[in-house]
Amino acid sequence: MLEPLLIQSGQGAYRVEFAAGGVAALAARLAGMGFSGVVADRRVAGMYPDALAPLLGAVPVLLADATEEEKTLAGSAKVLEFMQANQFSRQSRLLAVGGGIIGDMASFAAHVYHRGIRWEFVPTTLLAMSDSCIGAKCCLNFNRHKNQVGAFHAPSAVWIAPEFLDTLSDNDIRSGYGEIVKLSLTGPAVFFEEVRGALERGGLRNPELPGLIRKGLRVKQAIIEQDEYEAGPRRILNYGHTFGHVLETLSGYGIPHGLAVAWGVDLANWIAVKKGLLPEAEYAGIHAFVARHFPVSYSRPVTARGLVAGAARDKKAAGGSVSLVLPAASGELRIVPTALDGALEEILDAYLTTQCGQPAARGSR
Q1: Which CATH number fits domain 228-361: 3.30.450.20, 3.40.50.2300, 1.20.1090.10, 3.40.50.1360?
Q2: pTM above 0.85, yes or no
Q3: What percentage of the chain has pLDDT greater than the value 70?
């Protein structure tokens, strides 16, 4: 049994509990906790009808589709309509059951309804368990651009039941590992070696995974408790995300978030080498690991020019440059303002041509 985490937030401290007894035991426990309603991923509810019955049969339920198209103002409005129809008050509590998309929709709605009500989260994907369940961020897509609208609204509690991972596809598990890898490279060096060793020894579904989830959350906890609202140090958690988000968009969201982040981390490392920040040998070791365990298939051409154009729309971009999170030889991550120009296109083109191993990625700048 993993020990809970207590996350200190300016909006009130909250606990991350690792549930004993599996999904059914957690659902039975939550059913008696007085929630005013539940927003649940439709697929998750269908996969666990008996286990979740005590919870979903006890309160009003909104079944939602966990798609990028629903992670929008229109999708979050459905949650607002659900709360209004069920007469939620400022004292009401909303429970979200699903992955990061459901968490984003629910937390954004909870943030704006009556100027903020309490919400709690049961993450059901590895991506949500290992990263997005803490930190208070909620983001929605807007006009086909990723995470353009958002707020900070911390949950009142997080409940993790690793049993949910049993019904995830290998690709979903691999996507979740993308964020764990990012956090392992953000935290102490030994953590990355633990992640690499666990995957090498036991594959994607190795028995060490619940412990890796907790260790990743501890890395993130140390950062968000210093800088909850991303005024400074928290920006390093965007490591791999600038071009990862662009890749997601260019693929029509056919490449899942965590795999795009792992790809973005590898690309950030490549840029760091070309800028003289990271030794090539260190890049090569991480690149080999990422290429082996987190391969990306491109169904659409990806070009350096497309990546630069996408990065120009990033919320960290301004005045013709974007703030990239790049690793340095000392092991630290640095925020490096980088011009969105021809020099960057050349670096990106070299990466696509020599490092990806995907002919479809190659194209004119």
Answers
A1: 1.20.1090.10
A2: yes
A3: 98
